[in-house]
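Lab channel / #folding
Pinned by the channel admin:
"Please post every new chain as: sequence first, then the structure tokens as a reply. Keep commentary short and put observations after the output so the thread stays searchable."

First post following the new format, from NK:
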Amino acid sequence: MRTVIDIPDKLVESLDRIGAANNHSRAALIREAIVDFLRAKSISQAEAAFGLWKHRKIDGLHYQNDLRNEWGEQ
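Reply from TO:
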């Protein structure tokens, strides 16, 4: 996908210098920066799961033990 963004001249100059030194295009550097940004800002599934049980009347360990006790009664 193509998009149009405004980038200050000083940043474009910096991108061009880094690109020339590393033999990368400006577009490649911007894509890499976006990937790095998204990786740094994304929330892992484990972190997103914290607090899911906070509004329940039973805690997760008690619930798990109740399930295991049901298995033993069969």
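NK: The chain is about 65% helix and 0% strand.
TO: also worth noting, The mean pLDDT is 90.
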